[in-house]
Design brief:
Elements lengths: L12 H20 L3 H28 L9 H6 L16 H20 L6 H11 L18 E2 L3 E2 L15 H16 L5 H11 L15 H11 L6 H4 L9 H4 L2 H5 L5 H12 L6 H16 L5 H9 L7 H11 L5 H11 L8 H15 L3 H9 L5 H16 L12
């Protein structure tokens, strides 16, 4: 698939939400007019019709095939360009220092982005200006919206601000890194998807449906967890009712596989494939393989763009994701605004939580940052999108290259 062959069907999210709002208002009105039971029947039909349309979409997309975008690891590997596969045959002596840099870099980037996740550029910029913060930020935010609101069940939003951080605030995009490491610690490098599911069911909270900040997982992961809790088995549990097959979440889980395979991008990509394919397909999976391979390479190269190019050698050469990353490597943007505009000029219509557009933010943020940790994570999150994920992964990649000593103390000291 190439972006020129993707033709998005236009729709208005605002109008769609208004129609849903109309339905719920009629449901209330029916009660007030003394016809609750009849109203409930109509509402139940509405919900049933929505589920039928979701099922139709699911059947439609899962029937499609593309010779350039296979789902099996064997076929994916046949379509890779030439690459190093394994860069070293030993664990380098600087690995512990670089690993700390990668891990702390991820924590810092995630925390910075979580305070403004999915906020539009102008909204972030005006917020910074109002409180006298730099934009792009050069430190953790001084203030956050709704500071008393819950953040990932056990924390508050205020814990994301620089005067209220005494540890890494909890976040789903940190939780997945820990879950990946825990899975391999308990089950070894030959873990199965069934092993993953058991560990997720034990340690990953689903949380409250009604309070966003009390949720423990989102999107395709939440859907899969609910399916598993209903007794639906893998692999069906990962795809049933899941429209997030090509979205970002799989590659936010990829870091741990790069961490345990320093200098072995092929193996890192293989582990990431096993993880991602539990509830993603095609470019959602390739994105995870790419990020894991890139992080793996980052432990033994000195240039993040070289690591990115190595990451590309572990995914199908002609897939949509690879096309996008190659495009990003050709751009010479000098700041977050130029980069974000360039991405959306080309990928207008794609979901802003997609695996591809957010990966482009990471790649372009690494280029703009030019090995400066502060500039890299700040320019990356300033592009908007799923920017706790993008900040985290940019921080992880660069942290593996520059090591913990290369990260300014303001990002890692309590």
């Amino acid at each position: 698939m190439k972006i020129k062959d993707v033709h998005y069907v236009p729709f208005s999210g605002i109008q769609l939400n208004e129609k849903v709002d109309d339905i719920t208002r009629y449901l209330r009105l029916a009660a007030e007019f003394g016809c609750s039971e009849e109203g409930k029947k109509i509402f139940d039909k509405f919900l049933d019709n929505i589920q039928k349309r979701i099922d139709e979409f699911q059947d439609l997309v899962l029937r499609q095939t593309d010779p350039d975008e296979p789902d099996s690891l064997k076929e994916i590997r046949k379509l890779r360009p030439e690459g190093p596969r394994k860069l070293i045959d030993h664990i380098p002596c600087e690995y512990p220092e670089r690993l700390r840099g990668a891990f702390y870099g991820r924590m810092a980037g995630c925390t910075l982005g979580a305070a403004v996740e999915f906020q539009p550029i102008e909204e972030m910029k005006s917020w910074a200006e109002h409180f006298g913060d730099d934009f792009p930020p050069t430190n953790y935010w001084s203030h956050v919206k709704n500071p008393a609101s819950p953040h990932y069940i056990t924390a508050k939003k205020i814990n994301l601000t620089r005067n209220h951080i005494d540890s890494v605030p909890p976040d789903d995009d940190i939780m997945y890194t820990l879950l990946g490491l825990l899975t391999m610690e308990q089950c070894g490098i030959n873990f199965t998807q069934e092993d993953m599911a058991k560990i997720w069911m034990r340690f990953l909270p689903v949380g409250d449906d009604e309070t966003f900040g009390m949720r423990g997982c989102f999107w395709g992961e939440r859907i899969m967890m609910k399916n598993l809790k209903k007794g639906i088995s893998l692999p069906e549990a990962g795809v049933r009712g899941n429209p997030n097959l090509q979205n970002i979440a799989a590659w936010t889980r990829a870091d741990s596989y790069g961490y345990v395979c320093p200098g072995w991008p092929e193996k890192a990509a293989e582990l990431a494939y096993r993880d991602a394919s539990i509830n993603h397909r095609r470019n959602g999976v390739y994105g995870s393989m790419f990020m894991a391979a890139t992080i793996s390479a980052s432990f033994v190269v000195d240039d993040p763009m070289e690591a990115v190019r190595i990451g590309l050698t572990e995914i199908p050469e002609d897939c949509l994701f690879a096309e996008g990353v190659r495009w990003a490597l050709e751009q010479k943007c000098t700041n977050y605004y130029e980069a974000a505009k360039a991405v959306w000029d080309v990928y207008n219509g794609m979901f802003n939580g997609s695996a591809l557009t957010n990966a482009l933010h990471v790649v372009m943020g690494l280029y703009i940052g030019n090995k400066d940790f502060t500039k890299t994570i700040s320019e990356t999150i300033a592009m908007s999108g799923d920017n706790d994920c993008t900040g985290a992964t940019a921080g992880s990649i660069l942290g593996a290259i520059i090591g913990l000593k290369g990260i300014p103390s303001k990002w890692i000291d309590p």
